[in-house]
From TrEMBL:
Keywords: Membrane, Transmembrane, Transmembrane helix. The chain crosses the membrane at residues 18-40. This is General secretion pathway protein M. The lineage of its organism: Bacteria, Pseudomonadati, Pseudomonadota, Gammaproteobacteria, Methylococcales. It comes from Methylomarinovum tepidoasis. Gene3D superfamilies: 3.30.70.60. It comes from the Bacteria.
Amino acid sequence: MAPIKRLNPNLNETGQRILAVLLLLLPLVLLYGLAIAPYLKILADNRERIEDLRFQLQRLQRTAAKAPLWEGRLQALQQDPAARRHYLQGATPALASAELQKRLGEIVRAAGGELTSTQVLGTKEEDGFTQISVRARFTASSRQLQEILQEIEANPPYLLIERLTVRPVRGRRDPKTRQFIPLDKLNVDLTVYGYMKTEPS
């Protein structure tokens, strides 16, 4: 026991053994804190990112599969003068853009989401129509986001989703148990566009 006693002559034998064990564990604790814990955090962040990308991929695949449907609807609109309710309404593109911003805000709030901002991205002339694009940023749960997307696609005026980015909101750590509590809350960045009938001049 001579090597242990040299640790500190003022400690009894039990204290010296405890100190020796602590000294043996110290490198492991440092290794975990400096190398293993950051690596585990990177893995957790990567898993969140993978889930985010998988969700977006599935959404884009479903949207792409509906492309023939939307093309058919657009052709029907071009051929049916009575189908004005499917167009964005407004005397000018600026008024139609404002109406689209209002419509998106109403959809988000009706589903229980929290609208952060909306932004008109511009207009484009296309075969007798003016395409109007609006970007909306909001937070919502996964269920609320599903309701929002369904409402956008299901009811007139016809709106198409051009871009959808979803990022999960990081959870919080319980101050008592120190356990990580995940949140069912998403940051959503959504761009949609619709068509306004261009009146002949």
